[in-house]
Design a protein that fits this description.
The protein has about 140 residues and is an alpha+beta fold. The chain has one domain: Alpha-D-Glucose-1,6-Bisphosphate, Chain A, domain 4, CATH 3.30.530.20. The chain contains 4 helices and 7 strands, in the order βααββββββαα. A 7-stranded antiparallel sheet has the order 1-7-6-5-4-3-2. β2 and β3 form a beta hairpin. The longest helix is centred in the last third of the chain and has 13 residues.
């Protein structure tokens, strides 16, 4: 692994608990993140499969679950590139501040995560739009 990282932060207009649910409920993850999420549970050492309609697939192992503040996992793509993803949620006057850091990226993976369809910017924007559409 490399020491390259991509960090994105967004404030979503939803309470921290609702935002947490969007990160850990497989059905909610399919609303904003991957097209298909397969997971029995999101607990330490649990395996999760993320699939997108464009053929992208990632297999993850949950490392840390500190509800409703922090979720971390290690994932790898079909080419075997592995990286670490950490979500942190903090209360904010406008809702919840969500910060995601994907670290240990190769130069190629860092470029893909910084821009494009398989990138944290669009994923986080979709999270914000999804949570804004959820009735309070």
């Amino acid at each position: 692994m490399s020491d390259r990282a991509v960090t994105r932060t967004i404030v979503v207009p939803a309470p921290q608990g609702e935002t947490w649910d969007a990160l850990v409920d497989p059905d909610r993850l399919e609303d904003w993140f991957a097209d298909t999420v397969e997971a029995d549970e999101l607990a330490p050492d649990a395996e999760v499969s993320f699939r997108w309609d464009d053929g992208e697939r990632r297999e993850a192992v949950i490392e840390e679950v500190d509800a409703p503040n922090r979720l971390t996992f290690r994932w790898r793509d079909v080419e075997g590139e592995e990286s670490h993803v950490a979500f942190r949620l903090d209360e904010h006057e406008a809702g919840t501040r969500v910060t995601v850091v994907e670290s240990g990226l190769t130069a190629r993976a860092a470029a893909r995560r910084a821009a494009g369809a398989q990138a944290w910017g669009p994923w986080m924007a979709t999270l914000g739009a999804t949570l804004a559409a959820v009735p309070a």
